[in-house]
Amino acid sequence: MYIGKAAILGILLVWGSLTALMMMFNLLGELRETTVNYSASNVLWFVLQTGPRSAYQIFPVSALMGSLLGIGGLAGANELVAFRTSGVSRLRLAAAGMVGALIITIPVMVVGEYVAPDAEQQARAFRLSRLAGQVIIGGPAGMWMRDGSDIVNIKRPLLTVEDGQQSINFQDVEIHHFDGFAGLQKITRAGNATFDENGWTLEDVSVMGIGETDISLVKHERLSWESDVKPELLESAVTRPPYLSLRVLWDQLNYLQSNGLDDRVYQSAFWEKIIYPFAVIALVLAGMPFVFGSSRQHNLGFRLFIGMTMGGLFMLVNGSVENLAAAYALPVALGAAFPSAVLMVVAITILRRSV
Q1: DSSP label at 297?
Q2: How far apart are CA 195 and CA 202, in angstroms?
Q3: Could you tell me the pLDDT band of residue 54, with boundaries at 50, 70 and 90?
Q4: All residues at 6 or more sequence positions from 286 whose CB lies less than 8 Å from its CB, including other chains
Q5: Who contacts 222 (Cβ-Cβ below 8 Å, separation ≥6)?
Q6: For residues 274, 279, 281 and 283, what is the CA-based torsion angle, rounded to 10 degrees?
Q7: What per-residue confidence (pLDDT) applies to 288?
Q8: Mean pLDDT across the chain, nearest whole number?
Q9: Residues 6+ apart with CB under 8 A from 78
Q10: Mean per-residue pLDDT for 111-138?
Q11: Do the beta carbons of residue 284 and residue 67 sit within 8 Å?
Q12: What angle do CA 224, 229, 230 make, to 5 degrees?
């Protein structure tokens, strides 16, 4: 537990520092987008709302660097030598550090599942509402906005890939048409909404008219939609698959598969979240051989350099393997798990041989 505590303290220190640094960079980048409606205070609020997502994203590398920092400090003070002389193997010491990392990983995964996705949706909707100058609400029920006297609900803004290009498809669209103080006049439901040079087009449409004494229903295969809503603004408000929760990703996957649509982007994001704790374990284990190296030579700067280098290389290799899996139609789960599995096996093999 002593080694696990050192790992926890090191991880918390590095995680807090890297999250703050990442948010600072996000703030500086976002300040370039300020307008009369989107002020510096709005930018600050947007960055604070995206903070949980930043913390979730940076945690695996923070776990690697923090464990190197915390347990490496014990090695520098020759405390690990005392453990070794008492008969404790390096693999067992590494496992103790890994347990410390897992203790923090569990609440981080809770943040990534329940806090970060909702905060990200609210942040993107808030940003778009300020830029567009109208009230827009994001949440589990999709995106709500006002378009003149109409209220629009886009329930499924989906990210798809075609010919290597990503695009947003707006599906399950519902438009509530109001006529001033007369109230709700009709409800238009469409399976899909597309935009081209001629404007918006609704497909698979049903229009429910609401009269004083009766309700009518008319269906159309295609119907033009006169709207001031700009697709580029809507796209900026759509939460990308890596930022969604497992529950939402599973729901989107079922919808895409049942409708015969391309689900590769959501498959990749889904398995990345499943593999997330194993990636943390693999990175922490991969750093342990450097902790048990020449302790006097491996100072703080060296350990941080190793952590940043290994973390960067892992992210690069992980992304490349996922792209190769997609290019050669290999199972998405295999592409997501392969780098972590290889890294874990190599780290355990090195630690066992150096027992």
Answers
A1: T
A2: 9
A3: very high
A4: 64, 310, 314, 343, 344, 346, 347
A5: 201, 202, 203, 205
A6: -170
A7: 84
A8: 84
A9: 295
A10: 84
A11: yes
A12: 105
Q: Which amino acid would we find at residue 283?
A: L
The contacts of residue 332 (CB under 8 Å, 6+ apart) are 264, 267, 268, 270, 271, 322, 325, 326
The contacts found for 287-290 with CB under 8 angstroms, 24 or more apart, are 287/64, 287/65, 287/67, 287/68, 288/67, 288/71, 288/90, 288/93, 288/94, 288/97, 288/347, 288/351, 289/347, 289/350, 289/351, 289/354, 290/68, 290/72
What residue type is 304 in one-letter code?
L
DSSP string, 198-245: TEEEEEEEEEEEE-SS-EEEEEEEEEEE-----HHHHHHHSPPGGGS-
Give the helix ranges, DSSP H, for the chain: 2-30, 40-49, 51-76, 79-85, 90-110, 116-132, 231-237, 246-258, 264-291, 300-327, 332-353
> What does the alpha-carbon distance between residue 50 and residue 46 come to, in Å, rounded to a whole number?
6
d(CA 163, CA 166): 8
What does the alpha-carbon distance between residue 169 and residue 197 come to, in Å, rounded to a whole number? 16
- Would you say how long the chain is, in residues? 355
Of 115-124, 159-168, 301-310, 336-345, which gets the smallest average pLDDT?
159-168
| Cα-Cα-Cα-Cα dihedral sign, residues 41, 46, 47, 51 | positive
CA atoms within a 13 Å half-sphere pointing along the CA-CB vector of 115: 15
pLDDT, one tens digit per residue, over 156-200 is 888 776 655 666 788 899 999 888 666 888 999 999 988 887 788
Sign of CA dihedral 291, 20, 265, 118: positive
- 301 CB-near residues (< 8 Å, 6+ apart): none
Closest to 276 in 3D by CA, of 304, 242, 253: 242
pTM: 0.84
What is the token pair recorded at 216? 């009518």
Could you tell me which of 9, 25, 19, 26 has the C-alpha nearest to residue 60?
19
